[in-house]
Amino acid sequence: QVLPAVLQRPVVANHIVTERITLETSDHEDHVFCGIMFDVRCIDSLPIEFLEITSIAVRGALGPMTVWTTPETHEGKFRCHNSSKEWNQIYEQTHAYSMRRLVPLELQEPVRLSAGQRCGLFVHSSREGDDSLVYDNL
Questions:
Q1: By CB neighbour count within 10 A (0-12 exposed, 13-18 middle, 19+ buried), where does 77 fall?
Q2: Which residues pair with 134 in a beta bridge?
Q3: pLDDT digits over 98-126, tens only?
Q4: Quick check: pTM over 0.90?
């Protein structure tokens, strides 16, 4: 019996794909902050074993930069006094001012998400002022 190719698709990918993802804002204006939080989810609708994040690129006045991760989601995890226990610091380094060029924050330990898993990420600068991190398309 011959099965159609679509029914022979592997359950888990048998190759590694390296890809960069750029988030775009709709108003093309620079927005600056001391930190930004967002969630990342590894889809489970395709044959994928895991998603691995090895770096996050940022621009701005930068300064002392940290990256933090938390299981599942960042939502609601900075509202209560004990929320710091839910976050794990995965990066710490000081970077020079770079308003035009993206600076990669190379993680010592990559963030690895299995299919269907997600996590919250927090990129933060402890530099004084609120122009440490810029987001918009270049």
A1: buried
A2: 32, 59
A3: 988 999 999 988 999 999 999 999 999 98
A4: no
